[in-house]
């Protein structure tokens, strides 16, 4: 299973998320983000467009993931280096591996990372 994890700013639309995903260059089986962001219009729109579900990752589970990159915004909001990487790894399940570190959309509103695993 390939999971696209997303971190994004409030107000990020589907275009920002789509651009971050396009930078990853892979088709995901599942989209994941931090709990509380799973119902954003942009993420739901992208999930519908791709025909894949969205998984919300609780903050406590995000914080158990080891990320390759570090964003000051993610650190301040969640206490982790990258919401995108942590969400992808957590949703991909135990033993998941990061296959692409976070990519940033050109407008800097969204990030996307890819992980592979057996699922949450």
From TrEMBL:
Any Pfam family hit: CbiG_C
Keywords associated with the record: Methyltransferase, Transferase
Key word Methyltransferase present: yes
Annotated GO biological process: cobalamin biosynthetic process; methylation
GO function terms (MF aspect): methyltransferase activity
Transmembrane segments: none
Residue span, CobE/GbiG C-terminal domain: 2-115
Domain of life of the native organism: Bacteria
UniProt keyword Transferase, yes or no: yes
Protein name: Precorrin methylase
Organism: Pelagivirga sediminicola
